[in-house]
Write a structure and sequence with these properties.
single chain, 117 residues, alpha+beta, 3 helices, 5 strands, 34% helix, globular
Length: 117
Amino acid sequence: MVSDRFLDPRFPPTEHQLERRLGEANTLWWQLVADASRLRSPLFEQWRFWGRSHGWLLRLHGGTRTVLYLEPRDGHFVVAFAGVGFEVRTPEDLARVERRLFIRAATGERPLMGATS
């Protein structure tokens, strides 16, 4: 069975591999990264391997506080924050995620699962 995740723990995905895996959702991925960067600056990107069930995830964080995780899949990606995951396949999906993210930022709530790492 072929997985839709990056499962080699030795190597995080390259931008080229990410673009191929995400397809048209690649533009949405980078739009979300840019929009999140405007919410919290500086925002750092860190690839982390979460085992065979999730593979590589991109952690966006502002130092010790995680803003969100992005999990690449075939033709889409999953965004996780506040203990909830959202699939993003279309601009409408991205708008829904960003509304929730912006509300959390405006209210000062902890952005992701109460985690600090």
